[in-house]
Amino acid sequence: MFSFAGVCLSIIIIIIILVLVEVIVVPNVCNKRCRSKVCLVGKTALVTGGSSGMGYEIVLDLAQRGCRVIVADKIVSKNLRNKFIKETNNFDILVDYVDLGSFQSVRALTEKLTNREKKIDILIHNAGIGPLSSGLSADGINLVMQVNFYSPFLLTHLLVDLLKNSESARLVFCSSSIIKQLHSMILFEKFVISNPDKYKYSKYCLAAVADIFAKKLSRFNISSNCYDPGVVNTNIHAQFITSKFFYSLWVTIARWMFKSAEDGCQTAIYLACAKEAEGVTGQFFADLKPLHKPKVMFDEKVCQSIWDKAEKLVQLQTDEIL
């Protein structure tokens, strides 16, 4: 049996730990807020993975600014659209199906958008899957690499004409500072299909091509930046925890230690609409500020190799190559 004094001591220790977390840890992990009051009436944004997590919060923010928002996701329902409308009072929200694990699905989406939309002003590549995801895609490619990198690469190419129709378009890629752990001289062939660090590599590849997009598209007044949201409390980390006990434990820890989805998406919102970000391109952001790029992004030979091999793997047609 536990003594009363022992129980009281345990409670006091827990309270002290929680207070320390609240005072010390939370301020350090919480993102700065995007204070921009920019109105986006007349603008059109496409957000991938907008049905939950950071994507959901991004859609809410842009819609509240009056933006026409297209949510591209595997989860497509009238209820999702109605929920956005109810929370933002913006009826100009569309939900379109896309499976980033299929190049055919990506092409079907872009064909639909090309026939329906006049322009796209903001393209936010938010969708992604975690490091524990496994298996191959419908195209026979490592699923993490395809969802996190190849499909966004293809989607951007196929939407370039709509982006060009904007007076000033913005590309935003969700990468991660975890790529700092990678050595610059990576042999690309090693992680095309499988690698235990495929999540890191997918985020590295995304950052690498974001830089090249910035160079290739600047003459069309299209900016391209990537950002690190930090460690965010979303289902991307917890989706493979099957035990109810460990899931509850994870949720409790994540709530105290990690950013909320709303906090994590602030840099994406800043890059998408803030006046201060106008004309800024080819940068790596975190907490609303440009950071010194990870060393691996300075290896131009490797970055270009990633681009060239991705062009072939997603099977770009001659008229789709930038």
Automatic annotation (TrEMBL):
Signal peptide: none
GO MF annotations in UniProt: oxidoreductase activity
Residue ranges crossing the lipid bilayer per the database entry: 7-26
Origin: domain of life: Eukaryota
Keywords: Membrane, Oxidoreductase, Transmembrane, Transmembrane helix
Pfam families: adh_short
InterPro entries reported for this sequence: NAD(P)-bd_dom_sf (IPR036291), SDR_fam (IPR002347)
SUPFAM superfamilies: NAD(P)-binding Rossmann-fold domains (SSF51735)
Name assigned to this protein: Retinol dehydrogenase 14-like
